[in-house]
Amino acid sequence: MAGLVNNNKYKAMIINPTVALTLFLLVINFISAFTWGFGPTTFIGLLLLVGIVAKQTRIFLISHTQLLAPGLTITQQL
Amino acid sequence: MLALLSLLAVVGFYLGLTIRPEWLVDIAENTHLAVNHFLNGANPYQEFAQVFVTADDFKQAENATVVGGQVALLGRPYYFGYPYFPVMFYAYSPFVYAFESFNAIRIANACFFIMQLGLSAALVKSFCVKPALQKKAVAMVLLLQLGVLMFSVELFYYAMTDIVIAVLLLACFLSLRHKKIILAAVFLGLAQSTKLLPAPFIACFLLLFYWRQPFILRAVLAYFATVFVVVAPYIYQNSDAFLSSTILFYLSFHQQGDNSSLWFFLSEAIRPWFLYSGLLLAFASVFWFYCLSKKLPANMLSDKQEFQLNLLLVIASSAVFYMLFMAFNKMTHLNYLWSVYPMLCVAYSVVSFSAIDSSD
Fold first, then answer.
1. Cβ proximity of B43 and B234 under 8 Å
2. Which of A69-78, B41-50, B137-146 has the lowest mean pLDDT?
3. From residue B150, how far is each of A31, A35, B12, B337 by CA, in Å?
């Protein structure tokens, strides 16, 4: 059960999907406003996207694998 | 919201067909030329299929010599041939054959875009187990693609062609998700036979995550066999033309850089450090994802669960790697992004809804 507490802690760190969607779309639309790309804006935008996805994936993996047991779906464990 | 964005995409398609039907961006026009050469029995790498570049553009380029309008790249004659690999123009051939005009490329892009949406939705769906989460995650992956307002402009006005790679990569990952290993390797081989990048990186990352699997040798063979079958006829026909138009063109012309990259705005002293640190960061990101996968409690994971989580990590890490690689490169043209963008959307949708199917 101690593990479950940790699991919930990590679950809480996952960005809410609506916020995640909005954030992602804001950044990608910001980047793509410059058709071919423009050095500084494209660079910042790409790093932001990478950061958002990496953070979300890391938290997802930690929260979902620490207690992962065969036969149970991850969502069931949460 | 989805219906509204789909409607916007349809309007974008209509406007793309009607605003300047006689014009295409250079990449698309090159593809149109290449298809016509191909349909007329000519070699697109030996004929003119590069509308953007002239001999003067190579005067400052590395690895290039220009003598009286003739260009040689690393000593091999350059014919201003088609810069991409054969599958790119093969993919557009039926459409150009049927519609002939420049709009054939736009109509093809509409079909590829529908395929991209369908494949990304199917891939996300295959990761999910609960219907409620499945619907939300699929809606998210569609919104992430339809919600890019410039996408319609890129696909239907400029008529960028990188979407072919995106479709092939999604087909590769979907096949892999269903354990159709050879089919996945063939799709990856086709993606490799479309354009120089990003397929080699993805192949390497798949190897990194799956090298212990018994199927890996068969998969590698199928990948190389596919590339060989597609590319070998052109190398056999005229290796100089093929190499100079494709790989050597990238090693020379693209090495000049442009203002799409941050590198362009940096001082000469910083530029090399910027390039090397970017490369280091990109590879470190994949290593970071790999280390995350090693943290999975192996004894508690079934083979299927491990396979699936690794697949998700390959999709995420390949997209992240390529975006970092782009960001720190001498050219950061956004069309490079569109080939991996759906992969990023798939990974992001699955992890955002915590919707992975880990059942046996």
1. yes
2. A69-78
3. 10, 8, 9, 13
Contact A63, A55 (CB under 8 A): no
Name the residue with higher pLDDT: B255 or B142: B142
- Check residues A39 and B73 and name the one with the higher pLDDT: B73
What's the CA gap between B239 and A58, in Å, rounded? 45
Strand partners, B67: B70
pLDDT at B96: 98
B354, A73 contact by CB (below 8 A): no
CA distance B300 to chain A (A): 6
The beta strands (E) that lie in chain B are given as 64-67, 70-73, 76-78
Window A:11-70, CB contacts with B under 8 Å: 11, 14-15, 17, 20-21, 24-25, 28-29, 31-40, 42-43, 46-47, 49-50, 52-54, 56-58, 60-66, 68-70
Q: Looking at residue A78, what is its pLDDT?
A: 41
What local confidence, expressed as pLDDT, does residue B245 receive? 95
**Are B310 and B210 contacting, i.e. CB atoms less than 8 angstroms apart?**
yes
Structure tokens belonging to residue A15: 């960005």
Six token digits for residue A25? 């779309």
Band of pLDDT at residue A3, cut at 50, 70 and 90: very low
